[in-house]
Sequence to fold (291 residues):
Amino acid sequence: MVLQVSALPRTVALTALLMALLTAVVQGRATTENYVYQRLFECYAFNGTQHLLDRLFYNREEFVRFDSDLGEYQAVTELGRPDAKYWNSQKDILEQMRAEVERVCRHNYELEDPLILKRQVQPKVNVSPSKKGPLQHHNLLVCHVTDFYPGSIQVRWFLNGQEETAGVVSTNLIRNGDWTFQILVMLEMMPQQGDVYTCQVEHPSLDSPVTVEWSELLSDDSLVPTFEKQGTLWLWVHSSCLLHVYPGAISNPIFLLHQLPSIALSGSNGDFLTLAKGVLRIHSSPPCQRI
Fold:
């Protein structure tokens, strides 16, 4: 199946142009060698119905149109009255234009609907501060949502489970040029010890909202994985205690270890541990316990 275009006869378009020029002369308007003649063919779909408008312009001014809801031509200005009167007297022209609703509008809508109107791409979400800074200092937390389609999206900020509305600034929807969009939603913050910020994204492509958490601990450079011996993994937090790492979701907090490679090994207690690049949920262990 291919897209269809309107088959309005050339004689109709030529007649419209000649009528426009002749009417301009009769009405005493000045004519020049240069003029602009345009035709705009519009299809509208609403609740299973199709509506066609075929609009003609002379020097950027619409002068006559065909409206499928009326089934005939209408003069928009005095310049279009001769055209509308003539075409409405031609049954073959009216029948052809009425048929364009099915041949062009409905045909193209059904062809493009699964490719464009029902197309969905899930968003990618990343949260980061605009700059590094100490606790209790003002900063801007940026939730960057990108590569999603369609453009309808809702991004909300939460602090320790409570929605934040003050201090939220958003860019307009940005087109990526590849049929996807991106948006940045920023939150003014002054992080305190233990605060957890959450960016929540809702989009038609998602069965449930996506949430990404951030806290001062997540961005701390002291959270560094090191290997001492074969089969032994240490995770230091503020150089004071160790954390058990489990595959899957266990409990908060969520740590974004973006620099970790994919790792799989057996712990000293025989449990199988997995570290994967991305989001890990970490459960505190007794202080300084080796795993």
The helical segments are 10-26, 81-88, 91-117. Confidence is low (pLDDT under 50) at residues 220-291. The two ends are 62 Å apart (CA to CA).
